[in-house]
Design goal:
Elements (H helix, E strand, L loop, with lengths): L4 H7 L11 E3 L1 H7 L2 E6 L9 H9 L4 H6 L1 E4 L3 H13 L3 E5 L5 H9 L3 E4 L4 H15 L2 E2 L6 H17 L6 E5 L4 H13 L4 E7 L4 H8 L22 H10 L2 E5 L1 H15 L5 H17 L5 E6 L9 H11 L3 E9 L4 H9 L4 E5 L7 E9 L5 H12 L3 E4 L4 H5 L18 E11 L4 H9 L4 E7 L6 E11 L3 H9 L5 E4 L4 H6 L2
Parallel strand pairs: 2-10, 3-4, 3-6, 4-5, 7-8, 7-10, 8-9
Antiparallel strand pairs: 1-2, 11-13, 11-14, 12-13, 15-17, 15-18, 16-17
Helix pairs in contact: 1-8, 3-5, 3-8, 5-6, 8-9, 9-11, 12-13, 12-14
């Protein structure tokens, strides 16, 4: 039962290496949400994440023979750094298997702490399988990142500190979840010591393994996971964490990429520190909870779990933040193709900050304009703007939630494709692809698709994320369409979406 962890947590002797992190009041976000929001600053640990707690606590339990043989772990980065740093402190050799998609800052940090890095696979589960193979081959002791009682107890010390630091009323605590070690340790302690506090687990929408398990009543394996929040990109919740979490959490909240990016900005504005996507995840969940339940005047705590992110990823995060905060609207507006139409349109927009304005001539009768504008958060200003433009006679399509529009159309300059020769029976089909970003990945992708059909549009942009996004149009004979889709279905590791009917494509590119 979860209460058995209380003694383990109290007995964790980790503070000669880990530090007690502060519980900071987030003034700006508190004012905006009309709740008292506090951040538990695990990004201030020596390895910039909470993972040092569990890793060090587990190493302290090893006997001399195990220490002499060395240890191994699989990790997307933060457990790797915590283990390497702890092992170096204790004089133990550490091998870390990391996914090839792990941000370089984490890989180099592990090496800097004396760990031997093996890069294998694109997600954590592939790295974990390889680590288990090396355990057998090299007779090493495996140190799990989350599915281990001593690791869970080490992470549970976050809750022990939190409740000691804030003895006054706490309404809810929001905890990020990947494999579940941090959430399990914290939830077990909180529910035993102060059961009236609500505990919510927070996951990315595209890696919600705990949410799926709670719905099914048993652990399930997700067919694939998104890796933007690489620190929590896990296909299956840990066995022991799931056993604990079933009885200790009050719910699971999921957040999308834009919401996570907005939370990164929130943390920066209050602390002047930059959280990694997994580090800001729990704040994204907290904000969603406030919005959905309409709570006011409560004390809410989020765990800022880490700050290990590549600097070049900030460009992508910044782009998506305004939409995640609902501070930007993206519209496709049809104007009459006549002198003065643009001036009239800008006047009709009022005194709004325009963030994007794209146009290319398409016909003599109408112009399709791609326009981005800042709006007040909350959604009502966005709806009022669209309604006002429609009332003035404009045809308006809201593309704010259109992934292709956000990721590709706003960066493309060109115009409509020429009309295809109907005698040749050609059709232009548009596809959006995602695949793990690593050196050589783009060339490998091109080698897969080149030479089969004529490529009529191609857009790729390296935005510093852990995955690549590509937009491709191909001219395909009608008789070969079935073969095209069979080919795409069999591409290894490439997810794709048929965007041919996407209105953003039809308006600006088709």
């Amino acid at each position: 039962m979860p209460h058995t962890y209380i003694k383990r947590i109290l007995d964790a002797r980790i503070y000669d290496l880990a530090v007690e992190t502060p519980l900071d009041f987030a003034k700006s976000i508190s004012t905006r949400l009309d709740n008292r929001v506090l951040l538990k600053r695990e990004d201030l640990q020596p390895v910039f994440s909470f993972k040092i707690r569990g890793a060090y606590n587990r190493l302290l339990q090893l006997n001399d023979e195990q220490k002499a043989r060395g240890v191994i772990a699989a990790s997307a980065g933060n457990h790797a750094q915590g283990l390497a740093y702890s092992a170096q402190h204790l004089g133990i050799d550490a091998t870390i298997v990391m996914p090839r998609t792990t941000p370089a800052i984490k890989v180099e940090a592990v090496r800097g702490y004396g760990g031997h890095v093996v890069l294998h696979g694109d997600v954590f589960d592939e790295a974990a399988a390889h680590a288990q193979q090396l355990v057998t081959e090299r007779n090493l002791t495996y140190i799990p990142p989350y599915d281990d009682a001593d690791v869970i107890a080490g992470q549970g010390t976050v809750a022990m500190e939190l409740l000691r630091q804030h003895p006054a009323n706490i309404d809810a605590v929001f905890i990020p979840v990947g494999g579940g070690g941090l959430a399990a340790g914290m939830a077990a302690y909180i529910k035993f010591v102060r059961p009236g506090i609500k505990v919510y687990a927070v996951e990315p929408e595209d890696a919600a393994c705990l949410h799926a398990a709670m719905q099914a009543g048993e652990r399930v394996i997700l067919p694939e996971v998104g890796i933007f929040a690489d620190g929590v990109a896990v296909k299956q919740i840990g066995e022991e964490p799931f056993r604990i979490l079933q009885d200790t959490i009050d719910g699971v909240i999921t957040a999308n990429t834009d919401e996570i990016c907005a939370a990164i900005k929130d943390i920066f504005e209050d602390t002047r520190s930059i959280a990694e996507p997994a580090g800001a995840l729990s704040l994204a969940g907290l904000k969603k909870y406030v919005a959905e339940h309409g709570v006011h005047g409560q004390t809410l705590i989020a765990i800022d779990s880490g700050a290990n992110t590549n600097f070049d990823r900030l460009r992508y995060i910044s782009e998506r933040t305004e939409i995640g905060e609902q501070r930007e609207v993206i519209l496709a507006v049809t104007l009459p193709e006549k002198p003065g139409a643009y001036r009239t349109f800008c006047e009709d927009l009022g005194r709004r900050n325009i963030t994007e304005f794209n146009y290319r001539y398409a016909s003599d009768s109408a112009a399709h304009v791609f326009v981005g504008m800042q709006v007040a958060p909350g959604g009502s200003d966005r709806r009022e703007l669209v309604t006002r433009l429609v009332d003035k006679g404009y045809q308006v399509l809201d593309l704010t939630e259109n992934e292709m529009a956000k990721g590709h159309i706003r960066h493309l300059v060109g115009g409509h494709a020429p009309v295809l020769d109907s005698q040749l029976g050609l059709e232009e089909r548009l596809f959006r692809f995602e695949f793990p970003e690593r050196p050589g990945a783009l060339v490998k992708f091109l080698n897969h698709i080149a030479g089969r059909w004529n490529i009529s549009l191609f857009h790729y942009r390296n935005h510093g994320s852990a995955f690549a996004r590509i937009l491709v149009a191909m001219q395909v004979p009608s008789s070969e369409l079935e073969g095209l889709y069979t080919f795409l279905d069999n591409l290894p590791t490439y997810r794709y979406w048929d965007e041919t009917d996407n209105p953003a494509y039809q308006l600006f590119l088709a």
